[in-house]
Specification:
Strand order of the largest sheet: 8-10-7-11-9-12-13
Shape: globular
CATH topology of the largest domain: Phosphoribosyl-aminoimidazole Synthetase, Chain A, domain 2
Binding site for Mg(2+) 1: 52, 129
Helix content: 25-40%
Binding site for Mg(2+) 2: 52, 81
CATH class of the largest domain: Alpha Beta
Order of helices and strands: HHEEEHEHEEEHHHEHEHHEHEEE
Domain PurM-like C-terminal: 160-315
Organism: Cohnella candidum
Domain PurM-like N-terminal: 33-147
Distance between the termini: 45 Å
Length: 343
């Protein structure tokens, strides 16, 4: 139980950060300051619940993240989970276990990151908990969301002969992290990554608008957010839906910055794209007849959309097709990128 001084610190980090009008728009009746928050769910919607935990030296390193970035990313990871169901994020509960080395100023920066992300996506921060950790910072966030009743998109709805798509480039976060990690024993020091790659790792942009359009229009038959890597998320859809996913190497969205940086690091960008993770774009499937309508709508909204493959009948699996006559279709391993090693 926090002491009175700790209550004062918590108030300094949270009080007045969001206006009464913003909280009311999110259906908040009682927010921070009581034993529990009171919120009013949206009528005609299903409630979504997501939770994610970040542990220092497991999910992030102080060498690669500013304090505010940690708060931002902890909430953004949950926002992406809500987006992957086609929902709108609403209310956040934030629990922080703080090591003694962290003073009030660093905690204030951490909460700056929480509220920056919350304000960006219209989220009301309605409570949480603060306790002491012996050594490492631990951040756990619970996020609610809403989706029109019956419109939530799961991983299990894909069928054969559908398109496979992503809502943005992949591999940027992994490339940024690679260049910011301390060099391994005997390892060469890579050049510092371009700003776009650094920002992709520190402040990812969940595809909330894309997810809501895909759910509202009934276009997506399955969705998953790319948190553990494109290969891992594709396997999750394949296994949940009972289909085969075939990805085309030449259709994967490779950014120019990532290609140039991978070349400078003597790395294969495909490794980062397939196994990197933490891009928080959406991977999904849709009926072929809707592909043109989706592309037209996304283009009008200024949102990226890339068709990268198709589904087939057969045993669950994921394959990469190089479309090179001399190279056979090859299976993609079901694994995620090891974030804390250099290749």
């Amino acid at each position: 139980m926090p002491s009175p001084d700790e209550f004062a610190l918590i108030r300094s980090w949270t009080a007045g950060r969001q206006s009464a009008e913003r909280l009311a728009l999110a259906g908040v009746k009682t927010g921070i300051g009581d034993d529990a928050a009171v919120v009013s769910p949206e009528q005609g919607h299903d409630l979504l619940l997501a939770m994610d935990t970040m542990v220092e030296e497991i999910h992030f390193l102080p060498e690669t993240m500013e304090d505010a970035d940690i708060g931002y990313k902890a909430l953004a990871a949950n926002v992406s989970d809500i987006a992957a169901m086609g929902g709108k994020p609403l209310h956040a509960l934030i629990s922080v276990s703080v090591p003694s080395a962290w003073g009030p100023e660093r905690m204030a920066s951490l909460y700056d990151g929480f509220y920056e992300c919350a304000d960006q996506y219209g989220i009301a921060v309605v409570g949480g908990d603060t306790t002491v950790s012996r050594r490492h910072l631990v951040v756990a966030v619970t996020l609610t969301g809403a989706v029109p009743s019956g419109r939530a998109v799961t991983r299990s709805g894909a069928s054969p002969d559908e398109i496979v798509f992503v809502t943005g480039p992949v591999g940027l976060s992994a490339g940024g992290l690679y260049g910011m990690l301390p060099p391994g024993e005997g390892g060469r020091v890579p050049p510092f990554p371009p700003e776009r790659l650094v920002r992709a790792h520190r402040k990812p942009v969940p595809s909330v608008s894309a997810g809501r359009i895909l759910a509202d229009e009934g276009w997506a038959t399955s969705l998953n957010d790319v948190s553990d890597g494109l290969a891992s998320e594709a396997w999750e859809i394949a296994e949940s839906s009972g289909v085969t996913l075939v990805l085309h190497e030449n259709r994967l969205p490779l950014s120019g910055e990532l290609a140039a940086y991978a070349s400078a690091c003597r790395m294969d960008p495909l490794e980062w794209m397939l196994y990197g993770g933490e891009d928080y774009v959406l991977l999904g499937t849709a009926e072929r007849r809707n592909a043109e309508a989706i592309q037209t709508r996304f283009r009008a909204e200024g949102l990226p959309f890339f068709v990268i493959g198709e589904t087939e009948s057969g045993s669950p699996g994921v394959y990469l097709d190089s479309q090179d006559p001399g190279r056979a279709r090859k299976p993609i391993a079901k694994r995620g990128y090891n974030h804390f090693t250099k290749g």
